[in-house]
Every structure is written in C-alpha cells, then in structure tokens.
C-alpha cells in the first residue's frame, strides 16, 4: 500500500477534526504529521484490525502489547498528545461500532479503515491478556487468580522495576538533594509506622504484605511482631528469604492467606498498603468489617489506597479495559469519600486523611526509568509483551496522577476504645 501514513493521517483528521498530534510512520516506510516531536510507529496493518474489532483503548493496547505499534521519542509526550483520541474518541468509535447507523461519519471512517487494514479475521489477543475468568468477582478463588496474574511474573522482574526497596506502592518524597527512590520508600514505610504509633512488642497485621518490606521495617525499626498475608506464593518465598537473612524470623510470620481467613486477632495495628484496590466495591464493607474485628479497642488502621475522581452518576463507573485485561484483573477504584464513609460505617473513627497524589507520579516515573534501564533483562525475565504492558501502564498512570485523574490517600482510622480516647491521644498529629 502506497503512502499508508498519509491515508491514516487524513482518516484521523476526519475522525477528530484536527491533524494527528504526533508524527506517524507506517509499515510501508511512509510518514505524515508534524516533523518535530515523537513518532508513533505502526509496524503492521494488523494493529488496525485490532482497533476495528475492539475500537477504543483495548484495541490499541493489544497492538501495543503485541509490538505492532511503538513510540520513537518520549512516551509521556505521545500519551499526553494522544489522550483525547485514545480515550474520548475511542469511546465514540466504540459506540458507533455497536450502532453504526447512528453516526454516518464514523461509519464511513470505519469503512476507510477496513480498506487500509486489509484482510480479516481479527488477530487473537496477546498472550499476556488474562482470560478464562469464571464465577462472580471477588470470590476467594477468583481473587487468587487475579493476584497471581499481576504479582507472580517473576521476582527478578520486580527487582529491576522497584529497586532494592521492593516496595510496590507510592513513595514519600522529599526535595532534599540526592533523595533516591529507596530513600522515599523508606520514608513512606516510616510514615506508616509513626501514624500507627507502633511500639516494641505490639502486634501488626500487614494485609497484602508484598515482598515483606513493611513487615521488615516495622519489626527492625519499631520492634513490632508482624503477621504478613499475601495471595502470591512468589512474594511469600521472597519475603521469607529476606526475613531469614535479617534474622527476624522470630518476629515476622509471612502467610499465603486471604485476609478474610485471618482469625488470630486482636492486633494492635493493621497496615493495608496498596491492597484495597483489589477488594472490589461489592466486598468493601466486608473488608472494613473484617479489619475492624481483628483490631483491639483503640487499635489503629492505616489504609493506603488509590482513589478515582467521583462521578455525577457514580453507578455508571466502568473499570478501565486495559487495566482489567492486562494489569489488575477485577481491580476497582473508589473515590476517597466513599472509602472513608465505608470505614466509618464499619465502626472506625477517622483520625486523618493525607493525599499523596504527586508523590505517586514521581514514584511511577522512577519505576519506568528503572524498567527502561534494564529493558533487555526485563524482557528475558518475563516476555516482551509483559514488559511492554508494565511500561505503558506505569507511564500512563504517572500522567493520570499528574493530571488529577486519580489520586492516592492514606486514611488513619481507629477502633474506638471503651470510654473514649485519653487526652494524651488527642495531641496534634506530629508525623508531617
């Protein structure tokens, strides 16, 4: 096909009413669009067929994961410039594909795209896309499958991305010169411990303990006795090895266990860092009730959780297709107000809410830089498709935090003690 890039550029302009915001280079070597800035590379016509069969985000993501489209230049710039087309126009195209008679313009554009894209049938989804989910969301069996898809992709891969801290949640940044990702993650772990007011010998339950970083910090620095639970066997193996190397097996117990099966309370404190996003709204009150029951009176909960912006009609909220299919299967985000209300309904007293949105954007950019710096090794540790999934999801998430599309919040809540809190506990919070 001669000059595929110009034809695609003209088709894009027909769809969005403006020239493409980035340069396009097609599989035939042709180029079109602005000479300056990054280039969107379409390596194969198969990418267009994916978009025809799944208009909107999912079709484009499948092409990205399969390596049929790529970016030359700054990925963040391309994502920023394409955002309107990928998300807004993609939704419009998806609706038109379901009801083509409603929009003749989009129907015409789809026919033109068919002529450029070539023969059918649609390509199969890349192997990294989760399939075969059965039963209702957020049963114990289905949650275990979802967690395994995301976390059991190789500890070596995560070490390259996360760095020595092995903390897979928002760091807590300082503008001091030379402040590293490891410094910021250590600062976040210490922030959590100080909010929980951990003391020597107190029992801490770390829900969704990951690779054991929070458990290690709480036991080593504060003398806590920690129980960590995770559904990922690979995480548990890694965490137990770290704990043994530091000689803390007498203080830390790591279990492969669903939080709903923990029955050995009461605990003095509970940390839940980046785990509640997996719970699901249908189970969130159950989650709050279970944690409340596991705390002693006066015990503290630190809930660290990504939240989305509220919608006018919140019942219309839909899970992001890319995230659900490739990154966090069955993951759901709730507005911070809804999370806070559910914890209060379960009986907790909210003591503090701290927003860390900008901190997560910085964290994600560091993770992307780590992945890019170790790209060949990361591909060998997993697969080219998996590495491409993580690069796209982390870069897009960084932009979402920067543009206030999503946020992340730490909620400190207390199980009220009998007779109320003593005056000494009402002093001004001092962890800022």
Shape: elongated
CATH architecture descriptor of the largest domain: 3-Layer(aba) Sandwich
CATH domain class of the largest domain: Alpha Beta
Assign the CATH superfamily of the largest domain.
Vaccinia Virus protein VP39
| Through-space gap between termini | 61 Å
Describe the main β-sheet briefly.
7 strands, mixed
User: What class would the helix/strand composition place it in?
Assistant: alpha/beta
Order of helices and strands: HEEEHHEHHHHHEHEHEEHEHHEHHHE
Number of domains: 2
- Annotation field: number of helices: 16
What this model shows, in words?
By secondary structure, the protein is an alpha/beta fold. The chain has two domains: 4-117, Nonspecific Lipid-transfer Protein, Chain A; 140-426, 3-Layer(aba) Sandwich (Rossmann fold), CATH 3.40.50.150. Helices cover 46% and strands 15% of the residues. It contains 16 helices and eleven strands. It has helices spanning 4-16, 46-53, 57-65, 75-98, 104-117, 140-151, 155-162, 181-195, 213-222, 233-245, 284-294, 321-327, 336-345, 357-373, 375-381, 384-402, and strands at residues 23-25, 31-32, 39-42, 69-72, 203-207, 225-230, 252-256, 267-273, 295-308, 349-355, 406-414. Strands 7-6-5-8-9-11-10 form a seven-stranded mixed beta sheet. The chain has a four-stranded mixed beta sheet with strand order 2-1-3-4. A hairpin with a 5-residue loop joins strand 1 and strand 2. The N and C termini lie far apart (61 Å). Residues 157-399 form the Polyketide synthase-like methyltransferase domain. Keywords: Lipid metabolism, Methyltransferase, S-adenosyl-L-methionine, Transferase. Belongs to the CFA/CMAS family.
């Amino acid at each position: 096909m001669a000059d595929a890039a110009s034809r695609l550029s003209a088709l894009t302009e027909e769809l969005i009413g403006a020239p493409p915001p980035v340069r396009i280079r097609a599989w035939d070597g042709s180029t079109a669009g602005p000479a300056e800035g990054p280039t969107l590379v379409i390596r194969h016509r198969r990418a267009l067929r994916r978009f025809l069969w799944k208009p909107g985000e999912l079709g484009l993501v499948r092409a990205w994961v399969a390596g049929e489209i790529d970016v030359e230049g700054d990925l963040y710039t391309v994502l920023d410039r394409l955002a309107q087309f990928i998300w807004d126009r993609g939704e419009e195209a998806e609706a038109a594909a379901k009801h083509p008679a409603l929009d003749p313009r989009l129907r015409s554009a789809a026919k033109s795209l068919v002529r450029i894209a070539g023969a059918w049938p649609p390509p199969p989804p890349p192997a990294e896309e989760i399939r075969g989910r059965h039963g209702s969301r957020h049963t114990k069996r289905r949650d275990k499958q979802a967690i395994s898809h995301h976390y059991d992709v190789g500890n070596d891969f995560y070490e390259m991305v996360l760095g020595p801290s092995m903390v897979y949640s928002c760091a807590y940044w300082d503008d001091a010169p030379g402040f590293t990702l490891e410094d910021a993650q250590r600062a976040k772990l210490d922030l959590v411990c100080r909010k929980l007011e951990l003391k020597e010998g107190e029992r801490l339950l770390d829900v969704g303990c990951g690779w054991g970083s929070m458990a290690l910090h709480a036991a080593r620095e504060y003398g806590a006795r920690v129980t960590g639970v995770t559904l990922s066997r690979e995480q548990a193996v890694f965490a137990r090895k770290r704990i043994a190397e530091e000689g803390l097996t007498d203080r830390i117990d790591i279990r492969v266990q669903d939080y709903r099966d923990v029955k050995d309370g009461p605990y003095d404190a509970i940390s839940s860092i980046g785990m509640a996003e997996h719970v699901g709204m249908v189970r969130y009150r159950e989650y709050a009730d279970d944690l409340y029951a596991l705390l002693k009176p006066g015990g503290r909960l630190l809930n660290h959780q990504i939240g989305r912006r509220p919608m006018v009609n919140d019942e219309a909220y839909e899970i992001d297709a890319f995230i659900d299919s490739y990154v966090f299967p069955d993951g759901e985000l709730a507005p911070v107000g809804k999370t806070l209300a559910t914890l209060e309904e379960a009986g907790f007293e909210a003591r503090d809410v701290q927003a860390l949105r900008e901190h997560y954007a910085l964290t994600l950019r560091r993770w992307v830089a780590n992945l890019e710096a170790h790209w060949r090794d990361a591909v060998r540790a997993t697969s080219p498709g998996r590495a491409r999934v993580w690069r796209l999801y982390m870069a897009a998430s960084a932009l979402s935090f920067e543009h206030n599309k999503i946020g992340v919040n730490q909620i400190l809540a207390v199980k009220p003690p009998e007779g109320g809190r003593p005056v000494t506990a009402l002093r001004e919070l001092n962890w800022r």
